[in-house]
Amino acid sequence: MTIYYDNASTTPPLPYANNQFWGNPSSPHALGISAERELTAARQTIASILECRPGEIVFTSGGTESNNLALIGLAITVRRENFTFFAQPWEHPSVLQPLDYIKTQGLANVVLAPHSQWHSSGPRLAAISHVNHETGDINDVQAIAQSLKQDLSRAVVFVDGVQGFCKHKIDLSNIDMYSFSAHKCHGPAGVGGLVLRNNIRIAPLLYGGGQENKVRPGTENVNGIRHMAAAATTLWENDVAKVKSIIMELASELPNVYINAMTSNVSPYILNMSFMGIKGEPFVHLLSEKGLYVSMGAACQSRKNTKTALENMGFSKERAQSAIRFSFSCLNTPQEALAAKEIIKDCFFWLRGKASF
After folding, report:
1. 219: CATH
2. pTM for the full model?
């Protein structure tokens, strides 16, 4: 049996067997026009899901590019306006590393702190994830955005929506930029996008064409984008909450096992647990040998000699080193979860030296 609980890293793509469009959507001939129509239809589908205008969607290669485009693109545009960029120190590396670049290049001031400490008398950008990639904590991004918009005349709000797209409803009415990725919601890898409000101007990071309103030049991946739109319209919650609840039972059934989260408002799609006394890496490898695939956190985690997201959240180093992230999808079932729980228990006791196979 193979049980896949690493969906926060990437999800299995849903079947997609529609006709392939290989024409360039920028070409004026019939094949290009057909491809352009399909691209327009997919853009309208995504816009309908996010309740924004189709013209506000910029297609990219995925969440990492979208995050870089939003942050660095804005920083270049406002580099002479004394902007301060705020983010929490446990955000995804594709947010933190662009901010580090912005700081080292002197494009803007950068402050990493909990959002309750985001105080500034000047123009600012707030970067915050909708769903935390490590623990699944859901941020009330609408309330944060509304507060920022009320107490400052010029505030730009960017939301990393990669882990929440098509899983949790979001109101974008006070949000200026929002990133999303196909392969986190059963679409193909290498496709994603950025909602960019019409009143926000950012500099492109690439040059050489006029595609995507000149913000992201290059021939669009029409088939990948169509696949993303199709997958986004077919997702359903199914038994995700039940699956998570079964795995959560380990915290009461095993000694010194803890659930890691900052709040009680946590996504049913992500569960972070620490199995104290056992390092996460050998545990993940042993589970993999038994057919259960999990992770220790973000697949694109930054430098290993820096603090982990959990440590930045205030958890101890020992707890962070013993943490495992289980992440679920609509394809997982309660029956799988019951089997997975037994595999975890067997591996746990074996590593603790209390049992052997």
Report:
1. 3.40.640.10
2. 0.94
